[in-house]
Structure formats: structure tokens, C-alpha cells
Design goal:
Molybdenum Cofactor Biosythetic Enzyme, Chain A; alpha/beta; MoaB/Mog-like_dom_sf; 180 residues; 6 helices; six-stranded mixed beta sheet; molybdenum cofactor biosynthesis; 6 strands
Amino acid sequence: MQTSNAAGTEKSFHPLGIAILTVSDTRQPETDKSGDKIAELAQAAGHRIAARRILPDAVPGLRAQLQDWIADPAIDVIIATGGTGVTGRDVTPEALAPLVSKSIPGFGELFRMLSYQEIGTSTIQSRAEAALCDGTLVFLLPGSTGGVRLGMESIIVPQLDNRHRPCNLNELLPRIRNER
């Protein structure tokens, strides 16, 4: 990863406030390994955890929580884990859909390409996605720790680092928010 700007000078790191949403009918704080992995990797990268919740797979509750966090100025990024599969209980993308200002299709495309290298054609069952919602970045990851690790290490952590080159989402956030 390149971390210097065009003039060759090192930029200082700009931490973001991250909210973690675990979507599960069965997980508890002590069994939320995927949420723990997100927190671990985000904090290791220098970001702060601004909020964290576990909610069941139900559109109204998920959408309400997402709306609250999108409106919270302390939260720059929401990372959700779980509810992105293809069963009837997997409703995280449906909860997010009406809140999306602009989708980021490259995230899901890249996630599935990288996932294919690990799990083969089973990756077609993933509806991982990313979007902008009124100036807040939202990432939807699978509930598996492997999927979380892959998405965080390969895509999200680098894109949330304002020093990442040639470009990153962290650096775009102020411009995105001024367009509201």
C-alpha cells in the first residue's frame, strides 16, 4: 500500500468513528466473534469504535438502528456482519436499501472475487455490499469470521486509511458530506 501523497510527503492518519452492527437471532456479546473481529481490525488500524449492537434479523429494527447511526455525527462508518445470505431470514440488504444515497457496487464485486479464491462458487450466496447513506459509509459483510476477515483486511481497512493510494474512501468523506 502506498501512503505518501504526490509531493512524496507522509500524510497523518485520520481516524474514523465506526459503528458495528451484528445481525443475528442467536449471537450474544460473548459469542459475537465476527463483531469482535471487526472491532479488533478497526482498532488495530487506528479507528475508534463509536457504537456496537447485536440485533435480530428483522427489517424494522435493523433499519431504525441504521437510521439512528447515519444521523449520528460521531459515526462515519457502519460495518454490519450477518444477514447477507439468501435465506428468508437474511434481510440486512433489504433493511439498508431505502436509506442508500449511492451504492458502491465495486465493493461487492471485489469481495466476491476475493471470496471466490477462498470458497469457490459458494461466493454467489453472498450479498455483501457497500453504500453511502447521507454521508455515512455502510458496509454489509457476511456473518462468518472468514468473510469478515477477508472484507476487513482486503478492502475496508485499506479504504478507510486516508494515506492509502491511489485513492481511498476516508479522504472522500468530507467532499461527500458537503454535497448533501
